[in-house]
Amino acid sequence: MHESTDDGVGRLPATGCGDEHLRLAQAFPLVYDELRRIAHRALLRASGGATLSTTALVNEAYVKLAGNAALALQDRTHLLALCTRAMRQIMVDHARRRHAEKRGGGGGGALPLGAIEASAGDRPEVIVALDEALTALAERDPRLVRLIEYRLFGGLDSTQAAALLGLTPRSVQREWLRARAWIGHALALEANE
């Protein structure tokens, strides 16, 4: 029998060999409503023909996490961060499929960061280009990538992102300005290629 710990997600079995998926199964329902709100905001940003539903995005995030053999769930904040990253990956995969279906049907043009939320659903290549830019940025500044994931894909505000990143909301606002500038530059370069 394992001891229980209260790690911000509720009373869960202590970490041990093979317990991670049990912890996920127990913790997920505790944050499900919050994850639905996050998914709903993310999908609103990518609206305009998107075929993913809020429930489908949250459920696919769970399946993605449950299939991860190296899952090392730490606490509620960590679970939300993992789910936000999984939602990003799901939305990018979905956008890639939609873009492949639309390929040859036009598109192109500049991809400014300010237009991502408005055009992502109509132009799935925007989400794909953003993902490629984030992958490149991850080599230099993984924390900035997490901030972008939380803000754009998770729909979190500065205060929520600050809690996940262990920063002050003011620091997150400064980092967000830097993130917008970097991504805007990266997307403009890609659009000009």
UniProtKB/TrEMBL annotation:
InterPro entries: HTH_Sigma70_ECF-like, RNA_pol_sigma70_ECF-like, WH-like_DNA-bd_sf. Gene3D superfamilies: Winged helix-like DNA-binding domain superfamily/Winged helix DNA-binding domain. Residues 25-187 form the RNA polymerase sigma-70 ECF-like HTH domain. This is RNA polymerase sigma factor (TIGR02999 family). It comes from Dokdonella fugitiva. The lineage of its organism: Bacteria, Pseudomonadati, Pseudomonadota, Gammaproteobacteria, Lysobacterales.
